[in-house]
């Protein structure tokens, strides 16, 4: 409450500087918002000089103080306070405000040096060119202005590098992040910078450079586990599955251990780089995976690489984690690597069937079927077009809600139908053709709930993916049931299923081959030969093009597609060729 007096203002501003440093250091949390302390300090300076600035914003207030206050004794304290203000603005990503402040703090000679640095970042050049005021021996500081300047340089380079990385300007991001890596920071932050450098190089299409940066991050700080996660991602892109799985295994083991209590990363500095750089892109790049996410990735990669024994082990471990309240531990903001839980169950069933454990697969699928039964309406109408009202219209929110509800119902239907599909193939593996036919029929019966209105070709884009999956499940179930009808000697019923399958997926080589086999078994050899010749004349490219249409299959359906492959192509082809030769000889006589 005392009036401001010029003789004691240097001491007062130094005390304010130390107080703000101590407040930030004691909280040890990211700097946010404005600081009222700096504002009050500047107003005290203006008051002592007979001026006022109550109505001014912080940038205008700094401009008024630095342009109008010329008292020599106040220059050093004001510069120190300016460095603190720059830290607050950097933490808020107000780079323009920081640049403007250092332009006010710098002399003409300083600005000349900054402009002479061609090709360098303007903000970094200005901070580096700024002359740190001398520190009086009688006024001790909790953190020297020189050290604070170095931290500001590092934080500014790091922050701008992240901004360029997010904007896709990778060469500029690489340069700025390399500048930050050579700056003043703790090992923890240095490892984070190297991790970001690795991500930048990966996005630039330089996987080997990315691996060098990521390995450097782990050398600097072995607890920087996001770097290990990115290492696995790079090896995945390179197709080096063995090394990728090793990296994921190390990551899973590391996440399962209780890390030692980390010592203070920078015990001598109250303001540190980590308190100034906290952007969403950094949070995303350094996101720590939950152990269950890594366990799922291990299972998924093993299944994709046909390491079914390892995949089964990982999937069963993951399913056991569900009993530990997994949903409460994994983020639900879309950043998790986990798919929907029913899909994980279906992938596990797929792995179990391939590993020769069909009975276990049937049990796992029963879980999916029982938990989705009550979530599916009796009839699902999918319109040819869903007119989407503009967001500004009153009905937009309602339409979005109905669309979301319909999408969820279609997903539940797909999961349950896929459960029956997997059970059908599992019973087939067990040699129980009648039970297999029952499960395939249940799958097809489920899919009758979906009513496609219109031509069925121009489905609304929002539901196209779900409809495509349902159609593929229907196709695979028809092929599966048809094969089991053949096993049971019910050739006419098998023929009908294969014909329906070809209607869904014209030109499919498996359906076409099974159709020919069914005709052959029905002793309709002339028709079988004609169909065989027709499909043989189709180029492989046409079939591939037909199969390649649409989106990639969900992982849980890939094994079903493989099981639907026709296994007797060569014997059937020889039989038909022999028949055609015999027919040709009869005709020539």
CATH architecture of the domain at 339-382 and 403-539 and 552-587: Alpha Horseshoe
The end-to-end span amounts to: 124 Å
Number of helices: 28
Any idea of the CATH topology of the domain at 339-382 and 403-539 and 552-587? Serine Threonine Protein Phosphatase 5, Tetratricopeptide repeat
Helix percentage range? 55-70%
Instruction: Spell out the CATH superfamily of the domain at 339-382 and 403-539 and 552-587.
Output: Tetratricopeptide repeat domain
Query: Any idea what the radius of gyration is?
Result: 34 Å
Instruction: Please give the order of strands in the largest beta sheet.
Output: 1-2
Order of helices and strands: HHHHHHHHHHHHHHHHHHHEHHEHHHHHHH
Q: Report the top-level CATH class of the domain at 339-382 and 403-539 and 552-587.
A: Mainly Alpha
Poorly predicted parts? 263-267, 384-393, 454-459, 540-548
How much strand?
A: under 5%
Could you describe the largest sheet, including whether it forms a barrel? 2 strands, parallel
**What coarse outline follows from CA principal-axis ratios?**
elongated
Q: On the 0-100 scale, what is the average pLDDT?
A: 86
Structural class: mainly alpha
Number of strands: 2
Keywords: Signal, TPR repeat
Pfam family, one: BTAD
TPR repeats: 475-508
InterPro entries: BTAD, FANCG, TPR-like_helical_dom_sf, TPR_rpt
């Amino acid at each position: 409450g005392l009036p401001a007096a010029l003789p004691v203002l240097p001491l007062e501003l130094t005390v304010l500087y130390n107080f703000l440093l101590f407040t930030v250091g004691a909280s040890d949390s990211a700097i946010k918002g404005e600081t009222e302390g700096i504002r009050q300090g500047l107003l005290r300076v203006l008051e002592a000089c007979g001026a006022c600035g109550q109505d001014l914003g912080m940038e205008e207030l700094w401009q008024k103080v630095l342009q109008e206050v010329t008292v020599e004794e106040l220059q050093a304290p004001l510069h120190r306070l300016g460095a603190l203000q720059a830290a607050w603005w950097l933490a808020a990503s107000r780079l323009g405000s920081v640049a403007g402040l250092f332009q006010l703090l710098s002399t003409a000679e300083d600005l000349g040096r900054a402009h002479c640095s061609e090709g360098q970042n303007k903000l970094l050049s200005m901070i580096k060119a700024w002359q740190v005021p001398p520190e009086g021996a009688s006024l001790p500081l909790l953190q020297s202005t020189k050290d604070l300047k170095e931290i500001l340089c590092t934080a500014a380079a790091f922050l701008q590098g992240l901004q360029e990385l997010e904007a896709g300007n990778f060469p500029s991001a690489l340069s700025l992040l390399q500048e930050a890596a050579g700056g003043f920071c703790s090992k923890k932050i240095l490892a984070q910078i190297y991790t970001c450098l690795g991500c930048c190089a990966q996005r630039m299409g330089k996987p080997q450079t990315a691996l060098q940066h990521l390995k450097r991050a782990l050398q600097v700080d072995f607890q920087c586990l996001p770097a290990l996660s990115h290492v696995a991602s790079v090896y995945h892109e390179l197709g080096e599955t063995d090394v990728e799985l090793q990296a994921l295994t190390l990551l899973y083991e590391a996440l399962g251990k209780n890390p030692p209590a980390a010592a203070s990363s920078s015990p001598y500095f109250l303001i540190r780089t980590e308190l100034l750089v906290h952007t969403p892109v950094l949070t995303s790049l350094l996101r720590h995976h939950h152990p269950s996410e890594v366990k799922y990735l291990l299972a998924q990669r093993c299944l994709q690489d046909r390491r079914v024994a390892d995949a089964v082990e990982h999937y069963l471990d993951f399913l056991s984690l569900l009993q530990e309240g997994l949903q409460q531990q994994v983020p639900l903001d879309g950043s998790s690597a986990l798919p929907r839980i029913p899909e994980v169950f279906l992938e596990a069933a797929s792995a179990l069937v391939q590993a020769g454990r069909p009975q276990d697969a049937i049990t796992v699928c029963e879980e999916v079927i029982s938990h989705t039964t009550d979530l599916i309406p009796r009839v699902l109408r999918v319109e040819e077009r869903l007119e989407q009202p503009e967001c500004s219209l009153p009905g937009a929110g309602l339409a979005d809600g109905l669309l979301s509800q319909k999408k969820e119902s279609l997903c539940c239907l797909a999961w349950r139908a896929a459960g029956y599909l997997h059970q059908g193939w599992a019973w087939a593996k067990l040699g129980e053709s009648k039970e297999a036919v029952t499960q395939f029929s249940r799958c097809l019966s489920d899919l009758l709930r979906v009513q496609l209105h219109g031509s069925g070709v121009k489905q609304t884009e929002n539901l196209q993916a779900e409809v495509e999956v349902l159609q593929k499940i229907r196709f695979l179930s028809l092929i599966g049931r048809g094969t089991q009808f053949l096993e049971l000697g019910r050739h006419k019923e098998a023929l009908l299923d294969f014909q329906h399958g070809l209607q869904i997926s014209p030109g499919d080589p498996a359906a076409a081959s099974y159709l020919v086999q069914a005709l052959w078994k029905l002793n309709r050899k002339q028709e079988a030969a004609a169909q065989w010749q027709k499909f043989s004349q189709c180029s492989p490219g046409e079939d591939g093009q037909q199969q390649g249409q649409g989106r990639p299959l969900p992982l849980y359906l890939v094994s079903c597609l493989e099981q639907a492959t026709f296994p007797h192509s060569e014997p059937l082809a020889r039989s038909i060729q022999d028949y055609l030769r015999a027919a040709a000889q009869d005709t020539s006589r």
